[in-house]
Amino acid sequence: MTAIALSFVMCHLPVGEAHAQSIRFGLRGGIDIIDMDYSGDVFHTSNRSGFFAGPTLKIKTPVVGLGVDVGVLYNQHDIKVSDRTLTQEKLIVPGNLRMGVDLGGMLGIFLSLGPQFSFNLGKSTYFWEDLEGYRKYFTLQQTTLSMNLGGGVSIGHHLEASLFYNLPLGKTADFTWDTLLDHLQDQTMHRAQATVNAWHLSVAYYF
């Protein structure tokens, strides 16, 4: 709903010719490939894929080649947790500083760096028991902060393609589980922090 509302507002903003040249509204979409890391390397993990889409703004500054892009994107991907695959839904808000170079003709390249805020939209706490009856709890952070680093190419006046690496600044989730100690005939709880690293491949169209 937030992304839809922003799209409506941006489409109806009255802007002059000078502002229209420096502020451009667009739509961005793409795929991400994530890797879940656990503290202590307690689990083997494998890559999972997802998608994202939503409105974006590109803002030029008075400095030649320097700009800012900001987006409000819906993001959904799967997370592999022990013997389960969970689906996470979140709202991601990247704000990147970018430096571009016009290569002449209809082609340009740019580098980009900036923070990304993520807000969990779906279920945040998961509980289940495995086949042996051991309990497992997985809890996602409601908000997270990460950094984007990447770049891309601009084609003509409307199209951009980019590739970013997203590095988390802090934990993404907590995973707690219990096991049976054979020599004590008792259960003990274990805990690991999880972080998600991701590659984002996107295409944007600016009006």
What does this structure look like?
By secondary structure, the protein is mainly beta. The chain contains two helices and twelve strands; from the N terminus they run ααββββββββββββ. A hairpin with a 5-residue loop joins strand 2 and strand 3 (66-71). The radius of gyration is 21 Å and the shape is elongated. The two termini are 21 Å apart. Residues 1-20 have low confidence and may be disordered.
Outline:
The chain is mainly beta and 207 residues long. The protein has helices at 2-11, 17-22, and strands spanning 23-38, 48-60, 66-71, 73-81, 84-102, 107-120, 125-129, 135-140, 143-155, 159-168, 173-181, 186-206.
- What is the overall number of helices? 2
What fraction, in percent, of the residue positions are helical? Answer: under 10%
The value of Rg in angstroms is 21 Å
Strand content: over 45%
Give the helix/strand class. Answer: mainly beta
Query: Which spans of ≥5 residues are poorly predicted at pLDDT below 50?
Result: 1-20
SSE string, helices as H and strands as E? HHEEEEEEEEEEEE
**What about the largest sheet?**
12 strands, antiparallel
The whole-number mean of residue pLDDT values reads 84
DSSP summary, beta strand count: 12
N- to C-terminal distance: 21 Å
Shape assignment: elongated
